[in-house]
Write a structure and sequence with these properties.
alpha+beta, 8-stranded parallel barrel, binds (2R,3S,4R,5S)-2-(hydroxymethyl)piperidine-3,4,5-triol
């Protein structure tokens, strides 16, 4: 059966994705009305879903005869606009040539497209096989101004996910100013939901907060120029009766790396409008006649199997249909990053010695972090001068690469391409390349300015520098860092009425540069980083399949950071490293085993100098590297289930199950000692209930059913300790 069906007579669209249904229709006034989103329904007469409750006071509608409740302000709108009776947060607001914001979008028609189209210049999910997706385009028109909006919905045969975006076309005769263009909106019929959001800061990303929806606007935003450490662009709404493994849960993730807004607006009638897109604050876009504007993609997931079911859908969507490149479905190379081990103190001889030692330990990739270029001995200088520091690398990147490769290890390298130090050759040559507002002070963050990524000459310069280094150094991995917020958001090249476009043009410029690099270097593994996880978003996964989750490598802090990240992002995208003890961010001491078990995500590595470690510690590293090589594919492609979390359970536990269900790895981490408590037992998920599994470490035999319905008993744990259990199908 087709995934998208239109009932011509009743004018109802029924979209099915995986085992969910999304229903909308065109009402008598030609508004596009939201009907239902939830568990899959059989086709039927869905006209009842188009009814609006009889609210009345004060609402404006076009004809009093039909009743006040025929105001869009009381309807569940699919793509609400400002200017026609809807006085809540809307998806589109613009300024016409006459200075008003009048806009009235009515249904015009629809098209069904095979597959999943890409979005021009923006990250977008894609099919890996023909027939996995279908796309509905609903066309809405303001016949006064000839502004036309296509609202897109891509649905997937195998996933409970819907990917949405909108394209605004100016078919009129005068330019209009877009002031608010959101990617998508869902008008839920009531407000009986718990909203999960996240907050954080450097070294403390994606901490989780929940609240019952309240009246008014609630949500998240960024104006930092990136998706930011502070809040990540996702929201989750769940029924109060749902939990990790059962009940209705709705998730929304914006695939965008710049300023965004993600809000839920609960109105006075108890309806909840969830709406996400580019942050309208500070944004305008001049749309000339004949031009179009495409919003970033909004990825939605529904689960009736609780929060974990929603996470599984997002994991598959982002891992298989958003991330690209050679490594997206394979174990990542075991890497060793020099940052915490050497900071700026690297040189060719040291790198060669580390490479030789790393090779003995089973490390496959040595990443030379900050400090290899220009005059870079601290963070005061040289960003932009992407040529080797001769004092440290007398034979250039090529010389260093030869030595690292001769040791049997690949070479990776660090860049912070979007930045420029005041103390740099590049700034002397091109001060005009800096993001700035003419005549005003340019503020610094970590002693650096931001480059104007909207400029083609800036993109070209960066492309040449990065491409040249990759070629010369036989580079197989690039860490792409970014370490300050935007402040003075202006571009020398744009006229006054286009300065409101700079924030978005910056992101488009960044995406264009990355697209060029990943197209020309498809085998290079790119990892994004922004002082850790300050730009960990679905948009960047399109170019870089993994991200440095946090600068905080403390295993105990990582329990909550990785938990929050796992709500929507796949484990394959989460970089996690073993660093030294005591930890450099928290000065906490945690055992090697705990650090190792927590760092086992999809993208594992070390962040230390092995030459400073004892024989015993190096032996531990070698064993870990070998172990990771056997399980790395499981961490990338297996299903991930959260079993306990530090917020509710005062411990953490999770498991990976192989796609064939023949192997599972369960990890339990304590954050405290529980002397007299009952023995912990966690019900497992995703196993074959009819199979028998052997617990390889303890030699016990369990049925899949016993593990799933009774649970796996845990050994007692000391303080901040971990245990892993490997269960193999017999
Ligand atoms: C911030 C990153 O998060 C670190 O991992 C490291 O690369 C430093 N920048 C280098 O300056």
């Amino acid at each position: 059966m087709k995934l998208i069906r239109f009932d011509e007579e009743r004018r109802i669209f029924h979209l099915t994705s995986g085992d969910s249904s999304y229903i909308m229709g065109v009402n008598a006034q030609n508004f596009l009305i939201h009907g239902y989103w939830g568990r899959k329904l059989p086709d039927s007469d869905f006209n009842y879903l188009m009814e609006t409750q009889g609210h009345s006071s004060f609402e404006a509608c076009e004809d009093n005869e039909v009743g006040y409740w025929h105001s869009p302000n009381c309807m569940r709108m699919e793509f609400p606009v400002t200017g026609r009776q809807d006085v809540k947060k809307t998806a589109l607001e613009l300024k016409n040539a006459d200075g008003t914001n009048m806009l009235d979008l009515r249904y015009q028609g629809y098209k069904i497209h095979e597959g999943k189209p890409g979005l021009p210049g923006l990250p977008a999910t894609y099919e890996t096989e023909k027939g996995q997706a279908e796309t509905l385009e609903v066309i809405l028109l303001d016949d006064h101004s000839n502004i036309e909006v296509s609202v897109f919905y891509s649905v997937w045969a195998h996933l409970n996910a819907i990917c949405r975006w909108a394209v605004v076309k100016n078919n009129g005769n005068t330019p209009v100013m877009l002031e608010r263009v959101m990617s998508g909106c869902v008008d839920f019929p009531d407000r009986d939901y718990i909203m999960t959001t996240n907050y954080g800061a450097w070294a403390n990303e994606r901490q989780i907060e929940k609240h019952r929806l309240f009246s008014g606007v609630q949500g998240l935003y960024s104006r930092k120029g990136t998706s930011s450490h502070m809040h990540n662009p996702f929201v989750i709404l769940q029924r109060p009766t749902s939990d990790e493994y059962q009940g209705d849960v709705y998730g929304a993730v914006l695939a965008y790396s710049g300023n965004y807004e993600a809000v839920v607006d609960v109105d006075s009638y108890g309806m909840s409008r969830m709406i996400l897109g580019i942050n309208p604050d500070g944004f305008t876009w001049k749309l000339e006649p004949g031009e179009t504007f495409t919003t970033p993609e909004l990825c939605l997931a529904y689960s009736y199997k609780g929060v974990n079911g929603m996470s599984n859908t997002f994991h598959k969507l982002f891992r298989d249909h958003m991330a690209r490149g050679k490594y997206k479905n394979t174990r990542r190379p075991v890497l060793l990053n020099t940052w915490e081990g050497c900071y700026f103190g690297i040189n060719e001889e040291l790198i060669e010695n580390i490479a030789k030692e790393a090779a003995k330990l089973g490390v496959e990739l040595l990443v030379v972090d900050d400090g290899w270029f220009g005059e870079r001995n601290n963070d005061m200088t040289s960003l932009g001068d992407w040529y080797p520091n001769k004092a440290k690398l007398p034979n250039g990147v090529e010389g260093m690469a030869k030595k690292v490769n001769a040791a049997g290890v690949d070479l990776g390298i660090w860049f912070e391409p979007e930045m420029i130090s005041k103390e740099s050759q590049l700034y002397k040559k091109h001060p005009e390349w800096t993001l700035c507002v003419k005549g005003r002070l340019i503020s610094q963050g970590r002693n650096q300015y931001v480059l104007d990524m909207s400029r083609q000459d800036v993109q070209d310069y960066l492309y040449d520098c990065i491409a040249d280094t990759i070629k010369k150094g036989n580079i197989t991995y690039v860490k792409w860092d970014y370490n300050r917020n935007h402040a003075e958001i202006g571009s020398e090249l744009l006229p006054a009425d286009r300065q409101g476009e700079v924030g978005h043009r910056y992101v488009l410029g960044l995406y264009a540069l990355m697209e060029r690099l990943v197209t020309n270097f498809p085998d290079v593994l790119f990892e994004s980083c922004s002082g850790g996880g300050g730009r960990f978003d679905a948009g960047l996964l399109y170019y870089m399949p993994q991200a440095w989750t946090s600068d905080d490598t403390d295993a105990i802090m990582r329990l909550s950071i990785q938990y929050g990240t796992s709500l929507v992002y796949p484990l394959s995208s989460m970089s996690a490293h073993i660093s030294v003890c005591p930890n450099h961010q928290t000065w906490r001491s945690v055992s090697y085993k705990t650090r190792q078990d927590v760092a086992y995500t999809g993208s594992f590595g070390f962040e230390l100098d092995p030459l400073k470690l004892s024989e015993e510690e190096r032996a531990q590293m070698a064993a870990t590297a070998e172990d990771y090589k056997s399980y790395g594919d499981l961490f990338v492609n297996g299903d991930y289930y959260r079993l306990a979390n530090i917020y509710d359970d005062k411990c953490s536990a999770w498991m990976f199950v192989s796609p064939e269900k023949d192997f599972a790895l369960v990890t339990h981490a304590s954050i405290d000692v529980n002397i007299e408590g009952p023995q912990k037992k966690f019900k497992l998920y995703g196993l074959d209930e009819n199979a028998t599994y052997v617990d390889e470490g303890r030699g016990r035999i369990y049925s899949g059913a016993a593990l799933m319905y009774d649970g796996l008993p845990m050994d007692g744990l000391g303080d901040r300790a971990t245990a892993t259990y490997k269960l193999k199908k017999m």
